[in-house]
Specification:
Structural class: alpha/beta
Strand order of the largest sheet: 2-1-3-4-5
Number of domains: 1
Order of helices and strands: EHHEHEHEEH
Strand content: 15-25%
Largest sheet: 5 strands, parallel
Radius of gyration: 14 Å
Bound molecules: 1,3,4-trihydroxy-5-OXO-cyclohexanecarboxylic acid
CATH superfamily: Dehydroquinase, class II
CATH topology: Rossmann fold
Shape: globular
């Protein structure tokens, strides 16, 4: 099984960025967790982070025919991006949305998720472990 993990803007700033909300765990810690999870679950995984909406759309389009599942944290684009939603619908690859923080308990503008309208599951408020949970979910269902 081949899984694509996508991260949106500022996720590369983990560890520096608002540690009270996102914890002190770094982006490097996330990359390590993804590598360890892939090895443990016996899957192949590619990770891509971008601060640019169009680059994320390009990556989703390029996933067509290559990946069996997508784990996506669209970050701030969660709350604005119809383009990411449409790209996910276009390729129709099973997808799980992850948020490190518990967006439900945050500002009203974080309560809407456009990509989440396509994703079959959303994991929020679990810290970096949410990515592992999303991968395990996709593997158990589609692997
Ligand atoms: C986030 C939540 C978003 O509201 C925010 O814009 C992010 C990160 C999360 O992982 O908790 O950048 O997606």
């Amino acid at each position: 099984m081949n899984i694509l993990v996508l991260n949106g803007p500022n996720i590369n700033m983990l560890g520096i960025r608002e540690p009270g909300i996102y914890s002190k765990q770094t982006f490097q810690d996330l990359l390590q967790l993804l590598e360890d999870t892939a090895q443990k679950e016996g899957i192949t995984l590619e990770q891509y982070q971008s601060n640019h909406e169009g680059s994320l759309v390009d990556k989703i389009q390029a996933a067509y025919g290559k990946f069996d599942g997508i784990v996506i944290n669209p970050a701030a684009y969660t709350h604005t991006s119809v383009a990411i939603l449409d790209a996910l619908k276009a390729v129709a690859i099973p997808a799980v949305e992850v948020h490190i923080s518990n967006v439900d308990a945050r500002e009203p503008f974080r309560q809407i998720s456009y990509p989440g309208l396509y994703c079959e599951k959303t994991i929020k408020g679990q810290g970096l472990d949410g990515y592992r949970q999303a991968i395990v979910y996709l593997k158990e269902k589609y692997g």
